[in-house]
Design brief:
Shape of chain A: rod-shaped
Oligomer: heterodimer
Number of strands of chain A: 0
Helix content of chain A: over 70%
Structural class of chain A: mainly alpha
Helix content of chain B: over 70%
Strand content of chain B: under 5%
Number of helices of chain A: 1
Strand order of the largest sheet of chain B: 1-2
Largest sheet of chain A: none
Largest sheet of chain B: 2 strands, antiparallel
Largest interface: A-B, 25 and 38 residues
Chain lengths: 54, 236
């Protein structure tokens, strides 16, 4: 098989796979940040309630 | 948290099924390229690049068409989901067109003796690629969301003109690029046609999977931006 065909099909395989993996990793990072902010937000609410009770 | 927001955070069943189907279709099409399609008489095995090269070009054009249509929908309705669809489709379309250009060069070298020539189809393709790279840069620019969306919508509509130009270039002007599909039919044997159809089908499935994945990413980013805004407003 000519080298050009091999390289072309490596490109055809790597690009969609690379896109899928990079989008998955980007979403994972955003979700992690979301969870961190939600945890910070719920800690703040709890502290606020304790402050009002004392 | 709304149920819709929570389901965006992990992979949904329909997306997992789509991903599995896309992978299977892709592998099936690749088998057809190397195991089912005949060896072309003039170019030999290097002609096998044709099936995925044409499929990625057509799906890339389709992606730009979706950006064009979603741009119109955004300008008419102003709904964020059309803006998200336009951006996602353009990004995936650009990836497919990049594959088309690179593999076209890999095919051209053994057949034409050069990687590139400034003939009509290739020149328009290069301009198209640059236009959509600029679109991607516009999307990453620091601009207020609604303003960016409107700019991107108009840009996506105007940039789409390169798609019919590219399609018709090989039919209107003298060009070295082959015309495989014409008014007289397809210059291919039945097995070649089956392989091409399978390749286009596989690439379309992959496009849908990737666009859906990209849309979900934007929706989760919107959730994050909304939460940050809510927290900052609460702090003030």
């Amino acid at each position: 098989m000519p080298i050009y065909v091999t390289v072309a099909y490596v490109v055809f395989s790597a690009v969609p796979l690379g896109l899928a993996v990079s989008t998955y990793l980007r979403r994972k990072r955003v979700v992690r940040e979301l969870r961190r902010l939600e945890a910070t937000s719920s800690e703040g609410h709890a502290l606020g309630r304790r402050g009002r009770n004392t | 948290m709304a149920e819709e927001e929570s389901t965006r955070r992990g992979p949904r069943r329909v997306d997992m099924v789509l991903a599995a189907l896309s992978g299977a279709a892709y592998l099936g099409a690749m088998w057809m390229v190397f195991g089912y399609a005949p060896r072309e008489a003039t170019m030999g095995d290097v002609q096998r690049i044709f099936y995925f090269h044409v499929a990625s070009a057509w799906v890339g054009f389709f992606g730009f068409f979706v950006t064009f249509a979603a741009g119109f929908a955004y300008l008419l309705r102003g709904a964020r989901r059309w803006d998200i669809l336009a951006g996602a489709s353009a990004e995936i379309g650009l990836a497919f067109i990049t594959m088309t250009l690179v593999t076209g060069m890999l095919w051209a070298r053994p057949v034409w003796g050069v990687y590139w020539t400034w003939e009509p189809r290739l020149t328009i393709s290069a301009v198209q690629w640059l236009l959509y790279v600029a679109y991607a840069m516009l999307r990453r620019s620091v601009m207020e969301t609604e303003r960016q969306a409107r700019f991107a919508a108009v840009y996506g509509i105007v940039a789409f003109v390169t798609v019919p130009l590219s399609w018709f270039a090989i039919r209107w002007w003298r060009t070295i690029h082959p015309v495989v599909i014409s008014a007289e039919g397809m210059a291919m044997t039945p097995r070649m046609v089956h392989t091409l159809v399978a390749s286009v089908g596989a690439f379309t499935l992959v496009y849908v999977t990737l666009v859906r994945q990209r849309i979900t990413l934007e929706q989760v980013r919107d959730d994050l931006a909304a939460l940050r805004f809510a927290q900052e407003s609460g702090e003030r």
